């Protein structure tokens, strides 16, 4: 071999090695083409509409721990089977229950008139005669925290934080703190009750329920939400400068422990059946509406996405697992118990995504994967772009029922749902099937089908259970 030839061969070898190490992971052409087909065809499928219609009609409100919770579990098992899932099973989830009772309120003085309220989840009852006290108003939970006991002692605290509507729902967190922590903060200052302006973005006369918490060592006080116009009424009356006295009567009660179930349906993958894409929503709802947008929609789009892939016999290297979580609303019980059971096998979850922010449409795809897998995410974003989906960052955190597994270093994706009108309906009597629009729900189901198909056929791990995601979760928790 001449020196020249040797050099040429060496150069060639070096170049080959370099290009092998620099090669970015990518989906096989066949998979990318099929994903585009899924994207275009699942968008016309009305299966997810039929599923929400079925759940809201045949089960309806299904608050955790009620007899309807048990009926929802049976409905979900039967639906998975009817949709052709290969395996359907239950995993028990145990939690304390809470029951709503009578809930009425009125302004006693200076200008007597009724108020529309609903008890916050977890609230203790008032006495049967009701609780009458003067109102003290605060603009936010932070203002309440800054108050002196003499301002609050013996009164009913009224927190009037107005929530504004945004596509990403970013004002929910700052507003909902009054609901979650209001009872404890008010009681610490000697309040005898709590009324909050509903955590919502509509001015209909419908109060929004939702969970609240007590703390060991702090007196429990009854807590309820006023509809937005009733909150405005109180504000106007208080503006006249005279004391306003309100009477409220709540009959809500804590109940015994109850065991419900995460209901799981799986479509078995062909090459790596133990590895799976985890998608789903929560099966429970609040009791006021029929749980159409929260979270019938999330259950439906994920069930329909998996069913679409199976019905059209698309190749699936890994399994698809749809989990309908139990009791999200009263403390993420289903998600936490899923973690207790499956944290050890987090590496088997190729990727996860939960739909729990209404009917959509999906406007962005963000990820939470190891850096080496980012070229795959980019390709997924390109394939999904024709659905009107933008590329997001690598800090996805969506999915209340996935928080526990996220802390174990699970790779996840967020299919960001347009939440502009979600908090008009959220946790109210108005969360009913007629609010669901086929065009929006179908787009969401198509986005889930496309995402799920690609994740099931990914050429490499997204990093579940590997150090990058484990450390990322740890760093976030320590913040
Ligand atoms: Zn929800």
TrEMBL record:
Domain Peptidase M28 as annotated: residue spans: 262-450
Top-rank taxon, per record: Bacteria
Transmembrane in keyword set: no
Pfam hit, one: Peptidase_M28
Keywords: Carboxypeptidase, Endoplasmic reticulum, Glycoprotein, Golgi apparatus, Hydrolase, Lysosome, Metal-binding, Metalloprotease, Protease, Secreted, Signal, Zinc, Zymogen
Cell division listed as a keyword: no
Compartments where found: Endoplasmic reticulum; Golgi apparatus; Lysosome; Secreted
Alphabetized InterPro entries for the sequence: CPQ, Peptidase_M28
Gene Ontology cellular component list: extracellular region; lysosome
GO BP terms in the entry: proteolysis
GO molecular function terms listed in the Swiss-Prot or TrEMBL record: carboxypeptidase activity; metal ion binding; metallodipeptidase activity
Residues annotated as signal peptide: 1-22
Subunit-structure text: Homodimer. The monomeric form is inactive while the homodimer is active.
Protein name per the record: Carboxypeptidase Q
């Amino acid at each position: 071999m001449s020196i020249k030839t040797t050099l040429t061969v060496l150069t060639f070898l070096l170049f080959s090695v370099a290009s092998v190490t620099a090669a970015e992971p990518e989906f096989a052409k066949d998979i990318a083409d099929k994903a585009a087909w899924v994207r275009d065809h699942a968008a016309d499928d009305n299966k997810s509409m039929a599923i929400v219609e079925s759940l809201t009609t045949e089960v309806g409100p299904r608050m955790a721990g009620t007899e309807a919770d048990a009926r929802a579990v049976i409905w979900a098992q039967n639906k998975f089977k009817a949709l052709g899932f290969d395996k359907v099973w239950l995993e028990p989830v145990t939690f304390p229950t809470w029951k709503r009772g009578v809930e009425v309120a009125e302004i006693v003085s200076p200008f007597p008139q009724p108020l529309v309220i609903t008890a916050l989840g977890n609230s203790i009852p008032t006495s049967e005669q009701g609780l009458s006290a003067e109102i003290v108003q605060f603009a936010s939970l932070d203002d309440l925290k800054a108050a002196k006991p003499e301002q609050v002692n013996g009164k009913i605290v009224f927190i009037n934080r107005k929530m504004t509507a945004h596509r990403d729902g970013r004002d929910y967190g700052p507003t909902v703190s009054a609901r979650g922590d209001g009872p404890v903060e008010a009681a610490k200052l000697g309040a005898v009750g709590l009324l909050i302006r509903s955590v919502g973005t509509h001015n209909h006369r419908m109060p929004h329920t939702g969970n609240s918490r007590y703390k060991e060592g702090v007196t429990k006080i009854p807590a309820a939400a006023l509809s937005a116009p009733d909150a405005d009424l109180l504000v106007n009356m208080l503006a006249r400068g005279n004391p306003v006295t309100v009477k409220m009567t709540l009959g809500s009660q804590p109940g015994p422990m109850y065991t419900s179930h995460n209901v799981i349906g799986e479509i078995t993958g062909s090459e790596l059946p133990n590895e799976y894409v985890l998608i789903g929503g929560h099966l429970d709802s609040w009791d006021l509406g029929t749980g159409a947008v929260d979270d019938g929609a999330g259950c439906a789009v994920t069930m329909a996405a998996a069913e679409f892939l199976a019905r059209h016999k698309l190749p699936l290297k890994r399994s698809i697992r749809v989990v309908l979580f139990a009791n999200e609303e009263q403390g993420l019980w289903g998600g936490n118990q899923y973690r207790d059971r499956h944290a050890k096998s987090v590496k088997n979850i190729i990727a996860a995504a939960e739909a729990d922010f209404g009917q959509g449409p999906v406007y962005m795809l963000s990820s939470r994967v190891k850096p080496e897998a980012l070229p795959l995410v980019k390709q997924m974003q390109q394939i999904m772009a024709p659905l009107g989906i933008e590329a997001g960052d690598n800090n996805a955190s969506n999915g209340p029922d996935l928080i526990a597994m996220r802390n174990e270093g699970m790779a996840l994706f967020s299919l960001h749902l347009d939440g502009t009108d979600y908090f008009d309906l959220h946790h109210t009597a108005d969360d009913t099937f007629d609010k669901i629009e086929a065009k929006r729900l179908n787009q969401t189901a198509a986005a889930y089908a496309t995402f799920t198909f690609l994740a099931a056929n990914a050429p490499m791990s997204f990093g579940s259970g590997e150090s990058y995601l484990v450390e990322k979760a740890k760093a976030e928790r320590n913040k």
